[in-house]
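LAB NOTEBOOK - FOLDING QUEUE
OPERATOR: T.R.
BATCH SIZE: 2
PURPOSE: Compare the predicted structure-token outputs for two unrelated chains run back to back under identical settings.
PRIORITY: normal
REVIEWER: second-year student, initials M.K.

ITEM 1
FIELD SEQUENCE / FIELD STRUCTURE:
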Amino acid sequence: MKAFNIIETGKGLDSWSRVDLPDPTPGPGQVSIRVKAVSLNTRDLMVMGGYFPIPPKQNAIPVSDGAGEIVAVGAGVTRWNVGDRVFGSYYQQWPHGQFPADAELHALGGPLDGMLAELVTLSESGVVRVPDHLSYEEASTLPVAALTAWNAVMESGGRMTPGATVLTLGTGGVSLFAIQLAQASGFRVIATTSSQAKAERLRALGVSDVVNYKHTPNWEQEVLRLTNGQGVDQVIEVGGTGTLPKSLRSVRSGGLVNLIGLLTGFNDPIDTSPILFNKIRLQGSGVGSVQTAEVMARTINAIKLKPVVSDVFDFENAKHALAKLQDAATFGKVIIRIN
């Protein structure tokens, strides 16, 4: 089968190498999946660059997110049949409940082999059914970006009621899924972006209040103005320490800041006084369990949510897809079509 390997981290796009590998066969309790498409995340750039906290194993297959069709099942498999459409769970050994301390040791795309291959073999308990209305390309965006947004908006923000206000930053996959889920829940969305073109696309998604942070560097003041000085109920904070101080000034007293990304850094000092004096909840948030992914997938199926896709590349141009993600100018998810 054709695949990519991570041959050496820290070498930029040359960290990935096109290889031919033996076709895998499913063992007991496993399923083999013909991967149709994968989607890229900032995490893939971190693994490639050698600055993800847990390094990949030697010659690991990259990319955590993928969807495809089950083509073989191992002995004892009862949950799935050949022909079922599935996507892989990012955490292969987190079925439900509290986040396991060793969860990152069992994540696809390094430390475990990922999805950028024609065939992969996963545990039958580590895959989730694809919503009926989604293509494989669209379904490949669900394991990390969609589930991270789901956890932030629908789980940690579960006390919010229709009419609550959510602030999203930028137009990456997590932020766009958060916008869609928040709107489906009856929440008001305020979004920031860097260009007029992206602002128009956000408005086309139904976002009425868009703040251009290039034109309005003190965007937290505009957020306060838009909320009559009260602040938003929740912030989807994907920037890290470069944007976190503004997010803390944008949220209401007793509100929630979901810290998800580190795009602007993570080592800058932070003034913690707003957290203390305004009783703000600051919470690290990320991907969820298999059970949570199943609930999300059923909901996406019920409301017919369609992921926002930026670009689709073919397998042989996988490195071009990675370069596209690197330029940080995308609106939506970057996809690699395999079969």
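ITEM 2
FIELD SEQUENCE / FIELD STRUCTURE:
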Amino acid sequence: MIGDPATVDTFLARHAPDVEEAVRKAAATEIMPRFRQLAAHEVQQKSAPHDLVTDADRKAELYLTEALPALLPGSVVVGEEAVHANPASYEAIRGDAPVWIVDPVDGTRQFVHGSTGFCTLVALARHGVVHASWTYAPALDRLAVAVRGQGALLDGEPLRAGSPEPGRDLEVATSHPDYTTEEQKRALLGLRTDGVAPRPCGSAGLEYLNIARGELDATAFTWEAAWDHAAGLLLVEEAGGTHLTRAGEPFGITGGNALPFTAARDAATARRVVDLLADGTRSGRAAPGIS
């Protein structure tokens, strides 16, 4: 049956290159022709000033929504733009069928502003377990692939997150204040301490890639949307890193996580970030915007 994990593994062994081709074609057909070419009417605001959507997002997601289930009959797609239109469609992540989790343009704000710091994210999951992921930065033509239990590659070369250099400040990418509650802001204040250098995050997918490459030490994120996290968390895991919520548990793509959560290059760094987030919550200080 299609829901059998062995079927998913067999599919990946045979068809992972076909998924890569679909991701590349979606970008080549629908994203890159619009890069630095967007007209005003092709950009809209969703729920917040920094939450944008473009024709590239919508059309690339439609492309992948057709292409990916054709490769794995019986699978379904959960895409950011489809869920925005119909929130109930997110529930497919908790269903029995294999699910493709798609963020067609992760880093839409950067894309709109003409920066190369955006990517397309695709993950294949079943029952909350991510089996494979593809992180493609089309403006840079860089592709990272992770398969559970088989490691992570960037342009065909192995990725290893390693550990932070002793004595150096930890670089931690944090959520934008628009996407944080007052309690979460207080938690993030715990990172304002000696030995830690917090900064605002860019594209979540590329920040996860930075961790997998050993170029960023950790994240501290405050939202759960699976399309932002599923691909990158597997990439970090397969590069030797880890992730933890404030409850000290791995982040789950099906939701219900204690936020903020962290992904980090190693277990010690993840634990340190979680402890600092707890310190921030306990401090009782006022919670200004984190910038």
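REVIEWER COMMENT (ITEM 2): The CA atoms of residues 242 and 267 lie 6 Å apart.
FOLLOW-UP: none requested
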